[in-house]
Sequence to fold (259 residues):
Amino acid sequence: MSAMSSSNNFMDSQISRRSLLASSGPSLAAAQQSSKPNVLFFFPDQVRLCETGYNGGKNTPTPNIDRFASQGMNFRNALSTCPLCTPYRAMLQTGRWPTLSGGVMNWINLPSTGQSIGEVFARGGYDTGYIGKWHLAAGARAGSLKRGEPVTTKAEPEFVPPGPGRMGYQYWAAFNFHANFSKAFYYRDTSQRLVMPRYETDSETDFALDFLRARSGAGKPFFLIVAPHPPWRPDQTPWGKPRPRAKGALLAPQCQRTP
Fold:
C-alpha cells in the first residue's frame, strides 16, 4: 500500500527547502511562462497518513513533508478502494478501477492502454520522469500467481525496458521491486543493474534534484514522480539497526477515526 506522505530519509537536510527551491525555481518560472505548471509528485511506500507531522503524527519529525503539504497540493480525501501495492499504483497511473485496469493483484504485468497519467502528460508537451519503486510488472514472480510456486525468471526480472511498459515516462531511474534498501539496485534504459551509492531514499532524492537541475531554464514543463520504497521495519534503516523508540512514542492505534 502506498500513500502521499513521507519517508524518513527523504526529509533530512538532503532535501532542504533551500536546495529544492534552488533547483526547481528557474524551471518553475519557465513553466509559468508557458502556462503549464511543473508537477512533482512525492509517492513513498508504507507511510500511513497519521505518521506525518501535518496530520498530527508525533513519532517522527517530518518538517520537509509538512512544508510540501503547506505549499503544495494535499489530497485529503484520496482513498484506495484496493489498498494493495500494485492495484493502488495501477489506479494512480490509469485512473481506473483494478478490475478495468487489469491491476487486480501484485506480481502481474499491467496492460498499457496509452491513457496513463505519464502518457497524457507526455502528449501534453511535458518532460516526464519516474524515480524509485514501480511494481507494475510481474518481475521475479512472472508466470505464477501463488507465493512460493516455482517460476522461471529472467536474468534481470525487475528491469522495465523502454516502451509501453513504462507508460509514458521518459526519464527513468527505477526498479520494479526489491527490498534491499542499503544496497538498492535500479535501472536506466538498459538491463545493466546499477547500485545506488547511498541509502535508497537518499539516492532517489539525489536523482530527483539532478532531474530538476537539468531542466532548469529549459522552457519545458516537467512531470516527475519520486517513489521511494523505505521505510519498512525499524531494522531496515540507514544505520543498520533499530533506533531507540522516542520517549512518549504513540503506539497503534494512533489514527483518529473520521466520521
Summary: Residues 17-33 form the longest helix (17 residues). Residues 5 and 47 are 6 Å apart (CA to CA). The two ends are 23 Å apart (CA to CA).
